Amino acid sequence: MIVGVAALLPASAHAHEAGAPGASDLWRAYSLDMYVTVPMLLAAAIYATGLWRLWRRAGRGRGVETWRAACFAGAMFALGLALIWPFDVLGGVFLSAHMVQHVLLTTVAAPLLVLSAPIAASLWALPPAARRLAGGVARTGGIRRGWHYLTLPLFAWAFYATSLWLWHMPRLYEAAARDDLVHALEHVCFLTSALVLWWTALLSARTSALGASAGIFLLFTTALQDGLLGALLAFAPRPLYGVYAEAAHLLGHDPVADQQVAGIIMWIFGGLVYLTAALGLTWRFLLAPARSPLRVGS
Questions:
Q1: What is the sign, positive or negative, of the torsion defined by CA atoms of 165, 171, 176, 181?
Q2: C-alpha span between 11 and 136 (Å, rounded)
Q3: Does residue 164 carry a pLDDT above 90?
């Protein structure tokens, strides 16, 4: 990703004369990696096809509500901002832009994907026989047990926490900034762990009062983790990642200030999303006895 520096440097400028890129350079800040764009286009096509077939048969808004389809569109837009334009290239130049990528993946794209009912819609893209086969496979004991363990609150929390802290260690973070393959692996870990976390908190944890409590705990403690890591970045007295210090030297901006902005983005925005979701679940939990003694959000 450090190649993003070269992409944004004026072609005629020497490194020490370049200065930080301006708004006019943003048009070049795009990435069309086939390993990103092809899966995104394929996922969008499958979801749209399944949704069209389902609504054609059952009526618009039935089976998958309209607001869930809007969530999927929002998730694709967030993924596009993070992985195609402009933050993928800018993330090779500014730590703050790289942090925006992570926040978009974990606190915007992931919860919107979970809320979009992706499985229900996507299955309708399959022929009827394949759809019945997929349903049968999903109901087998091994798949059900694996999904059960994957969405256990403790596993979901540990999976996300491990991804968050491990990938922000200087050595791994710099490796991701310098190598596209490692960078892709980093993003897969962030998005996958966030999907498991949000799925567990918002869906699996809706079936009982105990589940709602687990969801609240998951989101609240994740907000604390994001806040703690963001604060460590914001108050660090020196650059923690050498690759961004190198980029700052080339472009003439302050690496410590860039790091502070990155920390504030994670601390305030990332933490606020998790905290708001936790408060929302708390509100639904407190109202649940008036509606149903067992179900939350039914």
A1: negative
A2: 57
A3: yes
